[in-house]
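re: ur question from yesterday

yeah so i grabbed the chain u mentioned. its 162 aa long if i counted rite. heres the sequnce exactly as i have it in my notes:
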Amino acid sequence: MRKLASFGTDETISRVVGQYSAMLLRLAAARLPCVADAEDAVQEVFVRLLDTRPVFRDAEHEKAWLIRATLHRAADIRRKRAREAPLEELAELSVEPPEPGPELLGAVRALPEKYAAVLHLYYYEEYSIKEIAKLLGLPAGTVGTRLARGRERLRQMLKEEA
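ran it thru and got these structure tokens back, copy pasting raw so excuse formatting
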């Protein structure tokens, strides 16, 4: 098993940012109400990567770390924004999607994190259930269950809106 180069070299940093930034930005943007927050989340993940300089077993381990870190950071930002928002804004957010856009994406954003992350990775990033299980460190059965429950919640949400 080949270990990846340690972080800090210009070529390693360029490779990681070039290879993963678009995917991580899409993942964060699907969980956050504005693109600026998503960009902040991804940037903070890359800074954390440079600060901690973890050693990965392989490219798959590296990718899984980045995805998990991005999901956690996006969840932190969501919680922080919810605590900071005035009550009037919270009432508005519960009625309308956080930003104008496709109805489905707004519904996915409204789901609990455990369902939204799996749905995003499956449908938007086109990972298989086994790949998602490896990325998130969950059993494949759990991923399948979250996918099914997430789909059902989406159906119910979209039915109620219609």
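noticed a couple things. Residues 99-162 form a domain with the Arc Repressor Mutant, subunit A fold (CATH 1.10.10.10). also DSSP finds eight helices and no strands in the chain.
anyway ttyl
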